[in-house]
Design brief:
Strand order of the largest sheet: 3-2-1-4-5-7-6
Order of helices and strands: HEHEHEHEHEHHHEE
CATH class: Alpha Beta
Number of helices: 8
Strand content: 25-35%
Number of strands: 7
CATH superfamily: Vaccinia Virus protein VP39
CATH architecture: 3-Layer(aba) Sandwich
Helix content: 25-40%
Shape: globular
Largest sheet: 7 strands, mixed
CATH topology: Rossmann fold
Number of domains: 1
Radius of gyration: 16 Å
C-alpha cells in the first residue's frame, strides 16, 4: 500500500474508492493522501469488517475523510453518482470482476486505478504457483487471470501497466 499511496499522491486525489476494503488497512493509507476536504469510501460485503473498519478509522482520527459502505461492490458502485479521482480494486480474484465496467466508468479522465492480486498472473505466466490457487479460484484460475489481464490491456479507455514485484497493476483512464 505504500507504493499505491505514493502513486496516488501524484494525482492529488480528492475522491477515492477502496473496493474490497476489508478491515480498512488500504482505506487508511488512501485517506493519508486525500486532499483536504476529500473523501475515501471503503466498500466491503462483510458487515463485521465494515463495523471494525469504521471503529478503527474513528480511533485513528480519519473519521472526517473516511466512509464505509457495506454491500456487493457492483451494487454499491451503482450508488456513486460522481466521477472519482482514484479507485483501488482489491475486490477481484483470478477472473474478470462483475464490477469492471461500472468501476472504470466512475474514474475521471486522467484518474488512477490500482489493482492488487496480480501475483496470480505472475504465477500463471511462470507456471510456478506459490499457493494452491485451485482451492481459492477454481481449476481454471490461470486461464481466467490471463484472460482478465488481456481484457484490461485491450481496453481503449485505460492505459494499464503491470509490475511483477510487487505484483500489482496500475491504470490511468484515458
Amino acid at each position: 500500500m505504500q507504493l499505491v499511496a505514493s502513486l496516488g499522491r501524484l494525482i492529488a486525489p480528492a475522491s477515492v474508492l477502496d473496493l474490497g476494503c476489508g478491515l480498512g488497512y488500504s482505506t487508511l493509507w488512501l485517506a493519508s493522501i486525500v486532499q483536504p476536504g476529500g473523501r475515501v469510501i471503503g466498500i466491503d460485503d462483510d458487515p463485521v469488517h465494515i463495523s471494525e473498519a469504521t471503529s478503527i478509522a474513528r480511533e485513528l482520527g480519519y473519521a472526517d475523510r473516511v466512509e464505509y459502505r457495506c454491500g456487493r461492490v457492483t451494487d454499491v458502485l451503482g450508488t456513486i453518482d460522481q466521477p472519482v479521482d482514484m479507485i483501488h480494486d482489491d475486490a477481484w480474484f483470478a477472473a474478470t470482476p462483475a464490477h469492471l465496467d461500472a468501476m472504470v466508468g466512475l474514474i475521471r479522465p486522467g484518474g488512477l486505478l490500482t489493482m492488487v492480486n496480480w501475483f496470480l498472473l505472475v504465477d500463471a505466466i511462470t507456471g510456478s504457483p506459490r499457493n494452491d490457487w485451485e482451492s481459492f479460484a477454481g481449476e481454471d484460475w490461470a486461464a481466467a487471470t490471463t484472460r482478465y489481464a488481456q481484457e484490461l490491456a485491450a481496453r481503449s479507455d485505460l492505459h494499464v501497466t503491470w509490475l511483477e514485484s510487487p505484483p500489482i497493476a496500475f491504470a490511468t483512464r484515458r
